[in-house]
């Protein structure tokens, strides 16, 4: 397992991180979740990403229990705050000082740790002054409850404004966590150049496009039983944008590229995002330990320039590249 520096900091993280969105506390039983975490540890993954909203706080508890007994100093544990949690009262959402301060305490208790390595704003809060949010994050760092701060799915302008305030407050905003894959490339036009300028890394989620880039979904064929595209708990909704014959047909054309590199399609997808120098880590999820073992093989892979160009050409008609999509997909106000 290779490690990379996170942003302009001295913190190194595994270039493949384990995340438990849509799995722990909802899709898989706790024993299976623990087995996946232990498989990640065995594979050399040291970085684990979660959020308070995942399974309405249960995912944090499951991850904390799965990591119990591990040497804390050998791990990088990330979590996030923004979306509604708990009974979802008027202050159980957003990036107000009240919600941040209460949320970090709850997250630490559930994770069974005194601090997280990275505390992230899960979305931009349009209803709280950014100064209030960043002051609260700075205080969380000064209290020793988080070592660094990051954001998730912020626009380039939002990242720039947050980074400037963090710098004024003497804390380090070092990461952004966006969706990024061969099929969803909206960060490349604005977010990545701005982040590279500021010393901010990307920790990307959905590098396999919710499983579409594994090639298991084929145009004109029935959906595989038990796949994410059949999951009524939320997985099917997330994957729907890619479930059309044009996209699925283009993905099938990548099979020879993966074969040329002696990679599976999933490994190719994870390795592809790691070719971007601004990406510090690709987050993988798993419902079975063997999925972890397969995906970690993407660490350290170099894809030759000619094959990167072939991938671009193959997916040119179906990849989403519009930088405006980051803002368009952001909540206009606090969700309830």
Automatic annotation (TrEMBL):
Residues 15-314 form the NADP-dependent oxidoreductase domain. One of its GO terms (molecular function) is oxidoreductase activity. It comes from the Bacteria. GO terms for cellular component: cytosol. Coiled coil: none annotated. The keyword Phosphoprotein does not apply. InterPro entries: K_chnl_volt-dep_bsu_KCNAB-rel (IPR005399), NAD(P)_OxRdtase_dom_sf (IPR036812), NADP_OxRdtase_dom (IPR023210). It holds the Pfam family Aldo_ket_red. Keywords: NADP, Oxidoreductase. Gene3D superfamilies: NADP-dependent oxidoreductase domain. Belongs to the shaker potassium channel beta subunit family. This is Aldo/keto reductase family protein. It comes from Actinotalea soli. The lineage of its organism: Bacteria, Bacillati, Actinomycetota, Actinomycetes, Micrococcales.
């Amino acid at each position: 397992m290779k490690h990379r520096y996170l942003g302009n900091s001295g913190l190194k993280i595994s270039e493949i991180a384990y995340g438990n969105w849509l799995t722990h506390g909802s899709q898989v039983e706790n024993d299976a979740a623990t087995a996946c975490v232990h498989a990640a540890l065995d594979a050399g993954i040291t970085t684990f990403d979660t959020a308070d909203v995942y399974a309405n706080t249960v995912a944090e508890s499951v991850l904390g229990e799965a990591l119990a007994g591990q040497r804390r100093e050998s791990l990088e544990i990330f979590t996030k705050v923004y979306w509604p949690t708990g009974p979802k009262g008027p202050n159980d959402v957003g990036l107000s000082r009240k919600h941040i301060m209460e949320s970090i305490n709850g997250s630490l208790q559930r994770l069974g740790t005194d601090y997280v390595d990275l505390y992230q704003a899960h979305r931009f809060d349009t209803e709280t002054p950014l100064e209030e949010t960043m002051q609260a994050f700075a205080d969380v760092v000064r209290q020793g409850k988080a070592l660094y701060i990051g954001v998730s799915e912020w626009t380039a302008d939002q990242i720039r404004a947050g980074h400037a305030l963090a710098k004024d407050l003497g804390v380090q905003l070092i990461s952004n966590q966006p969706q990024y894959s061969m099929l969803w490339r909206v960060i490349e036009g604005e977010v990545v150049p701005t982040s590279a300028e500021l010393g901010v890394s990307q920790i990307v989620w959905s590098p396999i496009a919710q499983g579409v880039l594994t090639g298991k979904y084929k145009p004109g064929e029935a959906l595989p039983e038990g796949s994410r595209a059949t999951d009524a708990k939320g997985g099917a909704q997330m994957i729907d944008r890619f479930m059309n014959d044009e996209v699925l047909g283009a993905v099938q054309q990548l099979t020879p590229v993966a074969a040329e590199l002696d990679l599976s399609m999933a490994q190719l997808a994870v390795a592809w995002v790691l070719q971007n120098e601004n990406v510090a880590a690709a987050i993988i999820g798993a419902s079975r330990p063997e999925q972890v073992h397969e995906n970690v093989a993407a660490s350290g892979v170099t894809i030759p320039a000619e094959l990167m160009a072939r991938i671009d050409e193959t997916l040119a008609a179906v990849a989403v590249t519009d930088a405006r999509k980051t803002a368009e997909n952001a909540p206009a106000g606090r969700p309830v």
